[in-house]
Request: fold
Amino acid sequence: MAIETDTSAAGKPTTLGVDVGGTFTDVAMWDGASMAVGKVPSTPRDQSDGVMAGARAAVRAGDRADLLHGTTVATNALLERRGARTLLVTDGGFESLIEIARQDRPSLYDPFADRSVPLADAGMRLGVDVPAAGLGDELDAVAASVVAAMRNRGAEAVAVCLMYSYADPTVERALAGRLRQVVDVPVSASAEVVAEFREYERFSTAVLNAFLSPEVSRYMGSLAARAGQSGFIDEISVMRSSGGLVSLDHASAFPASILLSGPAGGVVAAAALGELMGCHTLISFDMGGTSTDVCRVRSGRPEVTYNREIAGHACLMPSVAVHTVGAGGGSVAWADRGGALRVGPRSAGADPGPACYGRGSAEPTVTDANLVLGRLDPSAKLAGTMELRSDLARAAFERLGAALSLAPIEAALGVVAVVESHMTHAVRAVSVEQGTDPRDAALMAFGGAGGLHATALARALEMDGVIVPPYAGVFSAFGLLLSPPRADAAQTVNVTAADRERLPATARGLLAAARSQIEADSGRAAATAALIVDMRYLGQAHETSVPYTEGESWEVLCERFHRLHAERNGFARPTDPVEAVTVRAEAVGAAALRWADLPAFEPEAGDPKRGVRSVIGPTGAAEAGVWWRPALPVGAEVAGPAIIAEGESTTYLAAGERATVHETGALRIEW
Reply:
């Protein structure tokens, strides 16, 4: 891949956003005056190979750059269970708590659906008599028993999870500290990872953290070493799940905080562009090679969740509320034993990739379907170098069609219909299933394949149009440039009106901790900080997150809670007693780039109309105009059927749809 950069800008401070996907690694470079973007093939065996290849292609000779990185290394390690053999240390009698979990089932009406197997199996759990131990010889004896168990059981990481450490972490921290002095494996103390109540979720998060620590630390160390050897990379920051950047050291120490590092950058960028375009509510739609990620954004702020499951394991780390389905350009189409057409969740990935890549795969994928149907240009070169083989794609669909008793074109149309159904369900999961109406939201589509399917999804759900942003094919990498350093802190307090005076003191302490973390990570003070309090009516099992201003009265906070509870749940009980359960602080620094910093959109010279191409849809073949997006001026309108191509992605317009170029360079699609 060659990324075209402005050589006249040599010597200016440069910032790189590099986001690793399942098929391609995306690169966005900002030098303070201009933007350059591109793609390189991902390198699943060692993501740092692709990261450094993209960095070398983007940075001009003699220049230096800071690297902002979105990675799936933690996610992949969890999905493939390539983590450490982890010893769970907890109070005697509570060893099985991580397996008992909660009483909900993964599938209510499927008796054969099993929970995920705990990351610390029954033989890797140790109960200790901590309540009787002080901070002297007794605790030393407990530490010695843990060390003996580690050696006997071959532990590669330890999670120390005491029942009430969220309220008083003294003993847990002391035990973890003693272990770190004598063992050479990662030790995660639950109160250091997340100081919140609900013991199962806290235990699960601490075990996740310990399980991932060696794999993530190895990767971060390898990336740091290779960046140092390159001679042109200065600071490296990593995207955390909550949509902000942390240092390499922080990401290595708390790998559970970067489990959704990959999708977060695109959500941040979608929120910023939506606010600029005046979209109060939108749903981001990121379709890459392996999966599709969707997230609801309101008033320029992504939905954030503080309790979610990832691959069946509870995680209390804050994260953008992304819903993921195994539907991407590389998703493999296949016939099940009953003769039905299925698509995904297995993906062809980057190697061998779809059949049309010509790397030995004979299985049809969504990308192959789009090529066979004419939506993708058969003469295009992906990432600037990869030629597409339409003959191999058609051969793959001939085989699939034979298994399904369908013609190749019918099989390709079926694949598109099935994958779009999967993605429609994903959009419903973050809208209808959470009590919001998708008809009030626009769909912001990005990723290499997002523009090919966005209008079909939006029309099926009667949404308020589609936005395809500039740099759509590398939007998550671009979002890294818009992402600020961020620190999150939380503490369970269980405050009621009777002891309300404890709330302000806790809030002040958490704000100070978050601000200190920002300074430690970035070397600069936080630009802004905010507080959130998780509140509930006394006796409720679930909380509502309520914004809180330091020094605000208890009555004002409760009034805001009643209002938000009614908005989310349809009712409020203003006369019932209220409990403030957990206080959260978030501090953010200054991002490398703001939308306002970008130069005004200027189209390329030349005619944007690039001919016509036959495109096949459900109603048959049609002649579609082919347009080159970088040459379309602001205000230009393209009517479907049409193909709007650019270097890193393609947008498909069906008949009756029209796209208008916004002043930001985004495409606004309506029908």
Observations:
- The two ends are 36 Å apart (CA to CA).
- The first strand starts at residue 14 and ends at 20.
